[in-house]
Every structure is written in structure tokens, then in C-alpha cells.
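Contributing new records

If you add data, match the layout below exactly. Sequence lines come first and carry their own label; structure lines follow with theirs. Keep one chain per record. Anything else will be rejected by the validation script.
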Amino acid sequence: MKHLITIFMLLFAGATIQCYAHQSHHCSQDSVPKKGRVMPEFPGGPKAMMEYLVVYVSADTHGGGIRGRVVIECMIQPDGSVSDVKVIRKVDPRVDAEAVKLVENMPRWSPAMKDGQAVAMPYTLPVMIREKRD
């Protein structure tokens, strides 16, 4: 049952990432995928990104009972690096800071492409926060 819930959460979060990436209020018409355009991709694809973005928080460290989804907006640069990371949906200041650090330390992505050229693109990511169980 525990594995089934985790799988459901990963699938839901994956769908959420797709929605956020395509509907970010900061995306311009030039950043929406069309003919000749490719969205940026996390190394290993969406499943690897979801595994990376699930944060288990120790009750000792953060006071316990903290869970939810921090929503982070960032820019994927033409070289695949992540920059301009900011929280657009907060959960708790300590946890929000951890989520920012997690996104800032992401490995390089495959960048967005437009007409065969790498381009910068805004991207919105949900970071799932769960309490770590001993």
C-alpha cells in the first residue's frame, strides 16, 4: 500500500510538472513548445526528476508535521544550468529554503531548443515535502 501511494504521488506530481511547465504565468509565446521547439529535460527524464524532487524532512530538524508542496520557479539556461530560483508557493520558511537549495543544486538539464538553438526557458517545479519516518 505504501508503494502504491508513492507511485500515485509520483504520477500526480509528474502531471503537475507538465502543467506548471506549460502554463507558467511567466512563459512567453516564444517559450511554449511549437514546431521546431523542444522543452528542457531533467537528466534521466520526468521520473528521475520526481525522485529528485521528493524531499523527506526530519521531524527533529523542522519541528514535525510539515508536509506539502513548495512550488519553485526557475530559469533553465541554454547551457542547461538552473538559475533565478524563487519560491512562488510557500510551505514553511525552513522547508522553502531547503527546496530552493535542492533546485539550485540540480544537475545540468538538456536545454530547451528553438529552431535548433539552445534557449533559456522559465520552468516551474513542485517540490514535495514529506516527514521522514524512522
